[in-house]
Amino acid sequence: MGIINCVECGQVCMATPSKRCPGCRQIIVQHEEKVLEYLEHQPNSTLDAIHAATDAPRHIIMQMIKAGRLEPYLVAYPCEGCRHLITRGRLCARCAENLTSPAPAARAPIDPRANMSRVPYREATGASLPPLTPRSPTKELK
Ligand SMILES: [Zn+2]
Ligand SMILES: [Zn+2]
What we know:
Elements: E1 3-5, E2 12-14, H1 22-41, E3 44-46, H2 47-54, H3 58-66, E4 74-78, E5 85-86, H4 93-100, H5 112-116, H6 121-125
Helix pairs in contact: 1-2
């Protein structure tokens, strides 16, 4: 057990997984409850609307979003790059593209199924099928 500074108020407190002093944890829990209650009535909302309606600090709402706690709802929040509203990830599609792909040629579609489908079933699974026996013509129905 160590001693840390609460990430909310800076007060010295015992180290906890939340890195917050008991007082701040209590306040955050209250904010989170308000946010969840608001979303019960407004499942499609935005970070700003939640903040305005509940008084919960934006960073607390963002932490809930990042922790996946608001996933049942559709909450729009600003992209970290251009402040466009997005509903998942940290960046909008355009900013994510700018970040991850300096050269368009470097982006080959990677789909494991694309290669799998070219391998014949027996080779892919190693299954050995019984040898084919020619059917007797007399059993053939027309
Ligand atoms: Zn604190
Ligand atoms: Zn963006």
